[in-house]
Each structure stands twice: as C-alpha cells, then as structure tokens.
Amino acid sequence: MLINEDLLMSSGAKIVNYTKNQFVFQENTEAISYFQLLTGRVKIVSQKKPGREFIHHVSNQGDCLGELFLFLKHQYSVSAIAMEDCRIFILQKSDFDLMLKDYPTILRDLYESIAESLHYTYMMRGFALENPAEKTINLLRYLKVSNASTNPDEVLLTRQEIASLTGLRVETVIRTIKQLENEGLLVITKGKIFY
Q1: pTM above 0.85?
Q2: How far apart are CA 169 and CA 107, in angstroms?
Q3: Which of 72, 77, 129, 131 has the most CB atoms within 10 Å of its CB?
Q4: b vs e for 27-46, b when ≥16 Cβ sit within 10 Å of the residue's Cβ?
Q5: What values do phi and psi take at 124, rounded to 5?
Q6: C-alpha dihedral sign at 130, 131, 132, 133
Q7: Phi-psi bin for 51: left (phi > 0), alpha (psi -120 to 50), beta?
C-alpha cells in the first residue's frame, strides 16, 4: 500500500466497489479525489476512437491511480477502468491535501510512485523502435520486476492487453508469444503465459 489504509480511513477515505469495465475516472474530467486500489486491477487508458484503446499502465493492489493530476491544474488526460471487480479507497482532494500537510513524509512515497510511472513511460516509448519480439520481452521483463503477486512468473495480462500496452496488433502478439515459446524464452500452460 502506498498510503497506509488506517491513515486513509482516518483522513476520511471511503471504500467504493467497482465492477469489471466500470470507469473509476474518465478522460476530460476534473481530478477531485485520490484513488488507491485495495483489491483488483485497473487499467489506465486513452480512448481516441470508439472501440480502440491504448493501455498506458495496469495498476494492481496497493497502487494509486491518477495521483499526478491532483498536483496539476489539468483535467485527466486518461481514463481508469476496472479490469475486474475492485475495491478502491477514495479520498477527496481537500482531505488528501490536509493529510499531506499533516504527514509530509507521504510525499516521498508519492514522488517514488510518480517517478516509477515516468520510468515506465520512457521505457514504453523506447519500444517504438523495437521489433515485436523485443517489445514483448521488454514488457514481460518489466512486469516481472514490478509484479508483487504470489506467482511472479505468471503474466496476468491477456494477449489483447499485451497488444494494447505495446501498440501491436493482437494477431502479432499471438504469433510473437508462440515464437518466444518455441525459442524457450517463455512457457505457455493452459493458455497462461509464464515468463
């Protein structure tokens, strides 16, 4: 957890349930709350055309969502969508600001979270010059390092989600994953990818 659950609750946070595919926040709306994932997964996306999305990041338990926008005077430039049923702490911006004033050490953790997001963004932009196998392997390598699940070798993304994260077509991802399996760089068991 980025911010301790008890501190969030004592600062006025509420726990809200979201269902799969429900928006947590939407592009072009004001950032009025701090969000921290208690359970589930949420994708941060851009949706420029109907039915087409680019996944910028997948957030897991303990991650915060859209925190950068709380420090800007801009609306959200991305949307957050639940990938499965989720429980999320929501703390109003005014209460969030008071909490930071009372507990300034939290800012260091927020800076680290934002820095990690920027690192990921720079890394993903570097993928643009790589072939599909390199893009896929680099994404899987990053996910393995940042994965806090009980099975760090399991890739918790669908092929569609991998395609959205790398900017590749789903068909290309499927062929690439099969190629990487044939090269012994990953294992596919019952349709699940292990790297």
Answers
A1: no
A2: 39
A3: 77
A4: eeeebebbbbbbebbbbbbe
A5: -65, -40
A6: negative
A7: left
